[in-house]
Design a protein that fits this description.
This protein has 285 residues and is an alpha+beta fold. The chain has helices at 24-28, 46-59, 68-81, 124-129, 156-167, 211-222, 234-238, 270-283, and strands spanning 4-7, 10-13, 31-39, 42-43, 87-94, 111-117, 131-135, 173-176, 182-185, 189-194, 197-200, 227-229, 242-247, 251-258, 261-262. It starts with a strand and ends with a helix. The structure holds 4'-deoxy-4'-aminopyridoxal-5'-phosphate. 4'-deoxy-4'-aminopyridoxal-5'-phosphate (PMP) binds next to helix 6 and strand 13. 4'-deoxy-4'-aminopyridoxal-5'-phosphate binds at residues 35, 158, 184, 187-189, 208, 210-213, 246-248.
Length: 285
């Protein structure tokens, strides 16, 4: 059976799900998106993702042509049409079809696309033994050039860093901000454990406020682990006892090595394991 893709209220077979080559989402990356997971038929933190989608859209002056409630129904009906209970959901809103110029006002109708599919981001081995990552030379966009809270269809900043990582044999790359501070990886947030304290860069470091990041911080606090949002340097990461990455698709992935420096005494560390277990329980609650 072919996957069904939602476009503006209609479900199309995957091979027939098409949008215009004049769509400014394609021409300019003018649009926004979300990546979410569903577990046992429930979309994980759907409301938070929808809030972030609407925030991203409002920051680029894009009106989403349906309400959050309609989007929620559309997500659930697309999942049902594909018989997906455990999978991945990509929400995309493009500026729509316009002329070849930049002017978004030439685009009459935003396109709402929902793709539901299966996803395995990383092999089990990475969860068992940890990832090796490198720091990219490409820094994160300056927040005054592009607000990191806009989850836009233009991911070139992150893709350039990802290419650097891949060339170094790593599936993820760490990105610094314009001040040289640790920001995040190309599609995931970063955490370290330092003397029993869980630390992650603040949103002001120019990072996306990840839904998984938020969930992990809540879980840690509930479990009595001290959590700090603090400026981190690369040296802090190299000297950390533990390090892990979080994202909707990746969930919680331990990091064993950064720029050739081994992290802690072996990956995953105790707190990483504990939070991975708590996250596993939470997602199916
Ligand atoms: N940072 C970036 C740049 C991302 O693209 C993502 C994934 N959307 C994340 C962090 C993690 O966010 P979340 O936990 O909401 O998936």
């Amino acid at each position: 059976m072919s996957l069904k893709i939602y476009i503006n209220g209609t479900l199309f077979d995957k091979q027939d799900a098409k949008i215009s080559v004049y769509d400014h989402g394609l021409l300019y990356g003018d649009g926004v998106f979300e990546g979410m997971r569903c577990y046992a038929g429930q979309v994980f933190r759907l409301r938070e993702h929808l809030d972030r989608l609407w925030t991203s859209a409002s920051k680029i002056d894009l009106t989403i042509p349906i309400s959050p409630e309609e989007m929620e129904m559309a997500v659930n009906s697309t999942l049902a049409a594909n018989d997906i209970r455990d999978g991945y959901i990509r929400l995309i809103v493009t500026r729509g079809e316009g002329t070849l110029g930049l002017d978004p006002n030439t685009c009459a109708e935003a396109q709402v696309i929902i793709i539901t599919d299966m996803i395995t981001l990383y092999p089990d081995e990475f969860y068992e033994n940890g990832l090796a990552i490198v720091t990219a030379k490409t820094i994160r966009n300056h927040p005054l050039a592009l607000d990191p809270q806009i989850k836009s269809l233009n991911y070139l900043n992150n893709i350039l860093a990802k290419i650097e990582g891949l060339k170094a044999g790593c599936v993820e790359a760490l990105m610094l901000n314009h001040e040289g501070e640790v920001a995040e990886c190309t599609g995931v947030n970063i955490f370290i454990v330092n003397a029993g304290v869980l630390q992650t860069p603040p949103v002001s470091a120019g990072v996306l406020k990840g839904v998984t990041r938020g969930a992990v911080m809540e879980l840690a606090r509930e479990d009595g682990i001290k959590v700090e949002e603090v400026t981190l340097t690369l040296e802090d990461v190299y000297a950390a006892d533990e390090c892990f990455l979080t994202g909707s698709a990746a969930e919680v992935v331990p990091v064993r090595e950064v720029d050739g420096n081994q992290i802690g005494a072996g990956s995953p560390g105790l707190i990483t394991r504990r939070l991975t277990d708590l996250y596993c329980n939470l997602r199916t609650q």
